[in-house]
Every structure is written in C-alpha cells, then in structure tokens.
Design goal:
Blueprint: E1 2-5, E2 8-11, E3 16-22, H1 33-49, E4 54-58, H2 71-88, E5 92-96, H3 100-108, E6 113-116, H4 125-132, E7 136-139, H5 157-174, E8 182-185, H6 194-202, H7 204-207, E9 215-217, H8 222-228, H9 236-248, E10 253-256, H10 259-275
Parallel strand pairs: 3-4, 3-10, 4-5, 5-6, 6-7, 7-8, 9-10
Antiparallel strand pairs: 1-2
Helix pairs in contact: 1-2, 2-3, 3-4, 9-10
Bound molecules: ligand 7PM.
Ligand 7PM is lined by residues 20, 61-63, 96, 115, 117, 137, 139, 185, 187-188, 215, 217, 221, 255.
Length: 276
C-alpha cells in the first residue's frame, strides 16, 4: 500500500491532496521568467503549508483549442519550477506532461510522479517514464485534448474506461514500468459529457478492481459548472463536494486548486471511513 515517490513514501490506502500549479503563460499576467518562477514557488510553498502532499507542475495547457507548446518551451517553463520546489520544499513534485523529454529532465531534477493525461501514448513516453523509475499516473482520455469534447461517445463508459486503462497498464508493464508503480485516473472531462462523468464518479470504487491506487481531478471543472450553473471562479463548494465523494469512494489522490479547503473535506471523509 506504500508507494515510493523518489524517496518520499506515502500510504496509498489513505487519501492525499495534490495542488495544481500551472506554469503556462496565460496563468501569469506579466513579468519575465524570474518573476514567474518566484510567483510559482510562492504558490507552491503556500499549498505545502496548507497540507498538499503533491504539487502538480504543468507547462502545457490541455484546454480544448489551446495553442500547442514546443518541447523547448515546455522544458523552459517546467524544469526551473520542478528543480526549485524539489530542492526547497518538503513535498512530492509531480509533472503534468505528455512529453518524453520533459519526463526525463524532470526525473533528473527530483520529480516524484509523472502525470500524463495522454496515458503515455506519445512516441517515446513509455520508455522515458520507465527510465525515470518513479510512479506514473495513467489517465483515460477519449481522443485528443483539442477535440475531445466535440462529441464524446461510449457504449458503456465504465467498461471502456476500464479496458483502456487496463490496456495502458499492460503497455506500461511491457515497457518496464513496475505495475505497483502505476496510479489510475478516469480522466474527468477528458472526452466525456456530464452523464459520462457522473457514471464514472458514481462507480469510482469499481476502478479499484483493477488493483491500482486512484487519482481524480474534478476541481473547478465544467461538469461542476453544468450541475450548479456557476462560473469557474465560483465552483469551490461543488469541488469540495466532488472531493468528499471521491475520498469516500477510496481515491488515494485528489488533484485540486484549493488545497486548504480540500484538506478539511478529506479529513472529514477520512474520519468517517476510519470508524467503519
Ligand atoms: C484546460 C482543460 C485546463 C483541462 C486544465 C484542464 C487532470 C490532470 C488536468 C485530471 C490528472 C484541469 C485540466 N486535469 N491530470 N490534468 N487528472 N491526472 O482542469 O483530471 O486542471 S488539466
């Protein structure tokens, strides 16, 4: 039940919070790279103080229609942030990337988890992740980020997500990634409509049947906007409800923007689970 994230051990039978740290240019209003590094580090430090076990550093916007980023640009954005957080803070650094070069560089800089929303499907990603010798999160996605929300379609979303993830686990194992180093994620909002997302959340326990820790990310996502009618900046309460449900259903890691608030929600769920 314990996983080794580059020397930091964490019990996956309990629920932990991962703070989102975007280092895309649209996440900063102005300033050069040094200023941006300062801002990113300050945000990370605050999330650690608030109780985050992971900081997920991402330099490529996966928003539908977002401009793609060159490998060099992604490296330039992500590496300095990974390096300074690994060196200065008591936290597991995760890298949100599909780019093999970024996986390899980040591993040298102390990253403890590779988080790939494309499930290591890019050329060279399986090999790079295997060489990094850290746990990997494999997420389900239907289609490509640019077009995935155009017309998501499933015959049985639960079964198809499960089969996709099982197939990627097999591919990862063949590439030399230890199966006990694989975390699975149903990929809320990645090629799914509201009904698909709700079916996956309602049946989250079943994802455990595949025998891996589960990570979920629903923080501020449009599925919560569809349910509540609220804009992205007004979705904290809905995000906390989604986090609480996930924790009750056995998620090991919850990826969120609002760490401090989510920690309290997870504490309540963990306390309830502790008595049964
Ligand atoms: C645009 C679209 C901006 C989507 C940001 C996003 C997940 C993730 C993301 C997730 C894992 C967001 C997403 N979501 N990694 N990275 N699971 N493992 O809303 O659900 O944060 S990016």
């Amino acid at each position: 039940m314990e996983l080794d994230f580059a020397g930091r051990l964490l019990d996956m039978s309990r629920c932990h919070v991962m703070g989102v740290l975007n280092v895309t240019p649209d996440s900063f209003s102005d300033g050069g790279r040094f200023n941006q590094l300062d801002i990113a580090f300050a945000k990370a430090r605050q999330m650690v103080a608030d109780g985050a076990a992971f900081i997920d550093v991402g330099g490529e916007s996966t928003r539908p229609g977002a401009a793609s980023v060159s490998v060099q640009e992604e490296l330039d954005r992500v590496c300095p942030v990974v390096e300074v957080i690994s060196r200065e803070l008591d936290v597991i650094v995760s890298v949100d990337t599909s780019t093999p070069e970024v996986m390899s560089q980040a591993a040298k800089l102390g990253v403890g988890l590779i988080n790939d929303v494309r499930a290591l499907q890019r050329e060279g990603a399986l090999v790079a992740a295997a060489k990094a010798r850290v746990p990997v999160c494999i997420m389900h996605i239907q289609g490509e980020p640019e077009t995935m929300q155009e017309r998501p379609e499933y015959r049985n979303v639960l079964r198809e997500v499960g089969e996709f993830l099982a197939g990627r686990v097999r591919a990862a194992a063949q590439a030399g990634i230890a199966t006990n180093n694989i975390i699975l994620d149903p990929g809320f909002g990645f090629g799914k409509n509201l009904e698909h997302n709700l079916r996956l959340l309602a049946a989250l326990e079943q994802l455990h049947a595949l025998g891996h820790p589960v990570l979920v990310g629903m923080s501020r996502k449009s599925m919560l906007g569809q349910i509540t009618g609220r804009d992205v900046d007004e979705r904290l309460s809905a995000s906390l409800a989604a986090a609480t449900i996930s924790a009750m259903k056995g998620a090991s890691i919850i990826r969120v923007h609002d760490v401090r608030e989510t920690i309290d929600a997870v504490k309540v769920a963990t306390a309830v689970k502790g008595v049964v």
